[in-house]
């Protein structure tokens, strides 16, 4: 990681993109840090299987934003093949860093108390790991292909994944299916990663598994195409907004239609899920672009922008801090011990109903990071991963 001492040294940023990224990361922290996992409002939970809640939108929105950012960050290098090797080298380095940070979160804190056991049972897939893979592959595809080819690749990935999941028989099962433990993706994850390295809550399948990374890459490419279109200089802003809004709505409808045969499912990252969430992300970004960058109504954006410019940093640290709090033990009057997080949370449970206490803890956590990120932003500190 490196810290940029001056925001003005960085290339010009699309404020609406930072706003959208920041809002997405703040939402990610909100749903990842309830005070009590047993008391959560329904919209802040993932769908049990098929379907889509507001929480299910967060991760695909972030991968979509990664794609848009690629178009902006690498656009000037795309036209110069001589720079491609160096640009890809930087992308590989960044992807490896993101993947390593994700593995560290999976290993921490056990890696310091039982390193052998930690590596024997570390979950290899994960959110940062998927971001790393999508970023790297989307970057290479963007640099080496025209917009038409990128679109074709996206369609091939979506159609290919649909065909694989719905027509290829699952060994040991005998037929193609989309159930939690018997779908082809779960079978591949168990065979390659083994149950020791999968999501601890299931151990038989993983929501960030290997096969479902294919359509996740399509989500990144969806964002790349939107970013390329936003950067076009031969179109005025109203035309861009109109076409993006229309394309987004069309993708949502297409996703809903495909849902009838290939259900919208975040855990499987189905092709219908890609179109549905990509369409919604396009509509939201187009609306944000019009309001914030074109109409210049941006006074309300700073709390989200401070999250957006240090998105990976706050996501990583917000996952680390709760584990550190749980490591710190405090003595109780009765001689027992309680971890620091539980002790702090007890103040919320004394003041609210269980479900509101859980929400209040998550909101407080967001505000805690907002203060830190606000100071970093004012001091022009951006930590680049």
Automatic annotation (TrEMBL):
Keywords: Acyltransferase, Membrane, Transferase, Transmembrane, Transmembrane helix. It comes from Pedobacter caeni. The chain crosses the membrane at residues 57-74, 95-112, 124-143, 150-170, 209-230, 242-261, 273-292, 304-325, 358-377. It comes from the Bacteria. InterPro entries: HGSNAT_cat. Residues 13-166 form the Heparan-alpha-glucosaminide N-acetyltransferase catalytic domain. This is Predicted acyltransferase. One of its GO terms (molecular function) is acyltransferase activity. PANTHER family: LD22376P.
């Amino acid at each position: 990681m490196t810290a940029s001492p001056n925001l003005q040294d960085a290339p010009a940023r699309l404020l609406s993109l930072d706003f959208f990224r920041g809002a997405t990361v703040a939402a990610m922290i909100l749903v990842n840090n309830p005070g009590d996992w047993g008391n959560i409002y329904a919209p802040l939970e993932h769908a049990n299987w098929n379907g889509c809640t507001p929480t299910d939108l967060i991760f695909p929105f972030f991968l979509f934003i990664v794609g848009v950012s690629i178009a902006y960050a690498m656009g000037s290098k795309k036209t110069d093949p001589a720079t491609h090797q160096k640009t890809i080298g930087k992308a590989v380095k960044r992807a490896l860093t993101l993947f390593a940070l994700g593995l560290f979160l999976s290993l921490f804190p056990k890696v310091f108390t039982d390193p052998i056991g930690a590596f024997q049972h570390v979950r290899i897939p994960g959110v940062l790991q998927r971001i790393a893979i999508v970023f790297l592959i989307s970057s290479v595809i963007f640099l080496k292909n025209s917009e038409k080819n990128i679109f074709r690749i996206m369609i091939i990935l979506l159609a290919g994944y649909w065909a694989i999941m719905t027509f290829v028989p699952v060994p040991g099962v005998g037929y193609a299916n989309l159930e939690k433990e018997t779908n082809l993706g779960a079978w591949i994850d168990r065979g390659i990663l083994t149950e020791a390295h999968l999501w601890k809550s299931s151990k038989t399948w993983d929501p960030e598994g290997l096969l479902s990374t294919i359509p996740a890459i399509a989500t990144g490419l969806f964002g790349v195409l939107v970013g390329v279109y936003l950067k076009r200089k031969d179109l005025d802003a109203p035309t861009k907004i109109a076409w993006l809004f229309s394309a987004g709505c069309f993708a949502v409808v297409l996703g809903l239609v495909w849902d009838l045969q290939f259900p919208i499912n975040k855990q499987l990252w189905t092709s219908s899920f890609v179109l549905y969430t990509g369409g919604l992300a396009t509509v939201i970004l187009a609306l944000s672009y019009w309001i914030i960058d074109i109409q210049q109504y941006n006074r309300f954006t700073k709390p989200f922008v401070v999250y957006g410019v240090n998105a990976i940093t706050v996501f990583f640290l917000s996952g680390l801090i709760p584990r550190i709090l749980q490591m710190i033990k405090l003595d109780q009057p009765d001689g027992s011990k309680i971890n620091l997080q539980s002790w702090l949370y007890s103040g919320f449970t004394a003041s609210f109903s269980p479900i509101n206490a859980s929400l209040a803890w998550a909101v407080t956590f967001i505000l805690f990071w907002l203060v830190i990120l606000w100071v970093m932003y004012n001091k022009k500190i951006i930590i680049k991963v």
